[in-house]
Fold:
Amino acid sequence: MSNAKPLTRSACAIANSLDLVGDRWSLLVVRDVLHGKHTYSELANSPEHIPTNILADRLKRLEAAGIIVGTPYQKHPIRYAYTLTPKGTALGEVLLAFVRWGKQYIPGTVTLNRERATGVSATSTASLRRARVKRPG
Amino acid sequence: MSNAKPLTRSACAIANSLDLVGDRWSLLVVRDVLHGKHTYSELANSPEHIPTNILADRLKRLEAAGIIVGTPYQKHPIRYAYTLTPKGTALGEVLLAFVRWGKQYIPGTVTLNRERATGVSATSTASLRRARVKRPG
DNA sequence: TATCAGACTTGCAAAATGCAAGTAACTAAG
DNA sequence: CTTAGTTACTTGCATTTTGCAAGTCTGATA
Structure:
């Protein structure tokens, strides 16, 4: 019953990290959650416009990797608000390294984190309340 | 004559960085060059065993991105020794962030950089000399 | 002449990506 | 109560990328 093929390419921390987030989209999803986006549509409407099937897949993979968690905020149908685990939050350091590198060596790049100053949680809880609350009508 | 499709997904430094090195292999090649591996076979024989066609492709892409440069060390046939540009060397900070994250949050990972202490350039020049020099037999 | 090694290249199957459309539950409007 | 709209996905399918294996080209060695 033992699977002969190893799940990891090597013991190297870099290789193992890339096995989890080494693709074109995963770290952008982490960036967005870190910047206060928690719902599917918020993530889908980021400037890069990730294809929705890829987004659904990345959310599953990142959750399986222990980087994000989906907390249900409604039933019928069940809907999840995605937040970062400590493991996911720690990826902020990697993102910061990419930002510094990109800004220094790739012309025309900027940092997109206005939420940082204006209060991330306020924005996100507002959008979640909008989705969760039964309105009297 | 204007190409309608943008080459980049957004102006975000992270997105632009990932457009250059956001795949499973590029940063491992950078890691190896940083650790003193400069020839094709040295890179191909790293523990992760990158497929050779992918290696050839990544070397082209990383050179096109200004991250590495190939310097010819022989002719007939021409062969290149790959080294990092300042832009490539600066990716060391990103690699370091990945190492720290991986070591803290992915069980079973280690750092593979013995060269750090023993002198990278000594190792690399030795291996290049071996490739370049005519052996007496 | 035959063999071997280094540095790639090529062929092809499998997987990932990306676009577009479809679906399910609820909400708001008429 | 029917219709349209929104959110959060799912599905189909064409294109692209990945990865394994084998082949090529040049030079060195026996």
